[in-house]
Amino acid sequence: MSNSIQENANFKKGDIVVYKTNGICEIIDIRRENFDEKGIRDFYILRSVYDPRMQVFVPTKSKLSEKISYVSNIDQIKEAICKAYSAPLMWNPNDKERNSFFSKALMSCDRQLILSVYLLIKKKKAELEAENKHINTNDARILSKSEKMITEEFSYVLGISRDKIIQYIEDISKNF
Questions:
Q1: What is the pTM of this model?
Q2: Whole-angstrom Cα distance, residue 39 to residue 78?
Q3: Beta strands of 23-168 (E only): which ranges?
Q4: 8 A C-beta contact, residue 117 and residue 146
Q5: What is the pLDDT of residues 15-34, one digit of tens each?
Q6: I want to staple 80 with a disulfide (CB 3.0 to 4.6 A). Which of 63, 75, 112, 114 is the partner?
C-alpha cells in the first residue's frame, strides 16, 4: 500500500514553493508518515531546487505548513522591489529589538519586507564600512539569509542567474 496522498492538500506534488528560510523547493511527495509520538500524519516532502540533497518533511496540518507559499510571479517581484525602495525601513539601534524584527520578517514570507530588511542592512553595512566598522554577527546572518531568499526566488522566477539578481534589483530601482 502506498503512503502517497493527494486529497485535502493545499499544495500538490510537483508544486514549486518557498518554505521559510529554506528557499525554493519542489513538493516531491505528499504522504503519511509516523515519525514521532503524534502518530501517523500527512507530510509535504520538499526538496530544494538549488540543493537536491536538502529535503524537508513538513506536516500538512501544522503551523510549519503555514510557512509554505507559492513562488511569486514577475509582477509581484517588480511590485516588491518598487515598494521596498519607495518605503524604506528605519534602522533600530536596539540590537535585541532589531534582531527580533528581522527574524520575524524572514519568517513572514513577505518578499517586500524581506527585501526591505536586506536593503536596510546592506545600507547600514556600507555606512559602517566607510567608518572602518562592521555590522554585528546577527545582522550579518540576517543579511546573508535575506540575500539568499531574495536571490533564489527572484532568480527562479525571472530566469536570471542568482549572481545577477542584486544588480537587477538595483537597475530596476533606478526607475523609482
A1: 0.86
A2: 43
A3: 23-33, 41-48, 55-59, 68-70
A4: yes
A5: 999 998 788 999 999 999 99
A6: 112
